[in-house]
Amino acid sequence: MPEKTLCIFLFLLLTNNIFCQKQEPLRTIVSSTTIGMGNSDILDTYLTPLDYKGWSLEIRNERMQAAKKGNGNRINQQLIWGDYSSNSNQAENGMIISCFGGYSFGTLWKKHISKDLILLGGGYASAETGFIYNLRNGNNPASAKLSLNTGITGMALYRLNIKSMPITIRYQCSIPIFGCFFSPHYEQSYYEIFSLGNWDGIFHAASFHNQFNMDNYVSFDIPISSLSLRIGYLNTIRNTNVNEIKNRKVNHSFVIGFVKTFYPYSKKSSISTSRAIYNPMF
């Protein structure tokens, strides 16, 4: 009888430990979805030597979560984005449209400077693809884009408390260092590449000698119940110069969207208090 009681006790203890582990708070996820609207400046000398200006629309989803290792001081950042722009030349007798999308994954290490200021820095890898289409061109009307990059990224977070409301001010800058990208030769048609198989010299190792990209992102997160309203400014720069072809794409966008904090696989998916939304960082 005592042996049976001991077995039951050990079984209940093991079951309780497993249950408690499942109920422990999991790594908090901060997810944001934003829309950016602004102006766009595009130059692609493969299509035309003229500069085209217009408007752009971007949708961006960001997911930040503490890594499994690192005692909460290592943050993983995933970003998925897509943008569309419509641009015309100075004489307004020509138009080009562009459509781009991309994904990036980065890891940043966190350093508390004070209770309200945090600096983060690390690296990331990204993939981008898209096209630019010139409505005036009959021959070679489109220019395809594809790039893979690795680079550095840095972020500063400052929590400003206004009447017990924690407003988070954030700035992030990302710059690729090494990578590769696709670019045809000047006046080389895509028929030559894909139908005749002339692939020589169309993929290029990328660094500062032929590519300069940069993302600058400033945002303000204002708590509203279990969500936060995000407003900000996003500047994206894409520059390449190879095979006698210059490419430039610069966007300046006003950003608005929402931020939500939640625990993955938890019965209580959202956090009710607005201040708790900053626990993953502060």
Give the topology.
Layout: H1 2-23, E1 29-44, E2 52-66, E3 74-88, E4 95-114, E5 117-134, E6 142-162, E7 165-182, H2 190-194, E8 203-206, E9 211-224, E10 227-242, E11 245-262
Antiparallel strand pairs: 1-2, 1-11, 2-3, 3-4, 4-5, 5-6, 6-7, 7-8, 7-9, 9-10, 10-11
What sequence of helices (H) and strands (E) makes up the elements? HEEEEEEEHEEEE
Helix content: under 10%
Shape: globular
Average pLDDT? 86
Unreliable residue runs: 9-15, 17-25, 266-279
**What value does the Rg take, in angstroms?**
24 Å
Note the gap between the termini. Answer: 53 Å
Overview of this protein structure:
This protein has 282 residues and is mostly beta strands. The protein contains two helices and eleven strands, in the order H-E-E-E-E-E-E-E-H-E-E-E-E. The chain has a ten-stranded antiparallel β-barrel with strand order 1-2-3-4-5-6-7-9-10-11. The protein starts with a helix and ends in a 20-residue tail after the last strand.
